[in-house]
Amino acid sequence: MVGDVVATRGDLALGLYLWAQSYFTNTWRKIGVQPPVHGATIFH
Q: Where are the alpha helices (DSSP H) in the chain?
């Protein structure tokens, strides 16, 4: 039961991170700024 809660929070955090990354990438492209290519390498 506790593991399910942790897994759910992890999925939410990952989903939020991926959403924010794509959102800011699109925003940077709109204003003509090249986004960092390897933003996800922080987690590896």
A: 2-30
Nearest to 39 by CA among 16, 25, 12: 25
State the Cα–Cα distance between residues 14 and 8, nearest whole angstrom: 10
What lies within 8 Å, CB to CB, of 24 at 6+ separation is 35
User: What's the pLDDT at 44?
Assistant: 43
- The mean of the pLDDT values for the chain is 74
Whether the CA torsion 19, 22, 28, 33 is positive or negative: it is positive
As a whole number of angstroms, the distance between CA 34 and CA 26 comes to 10
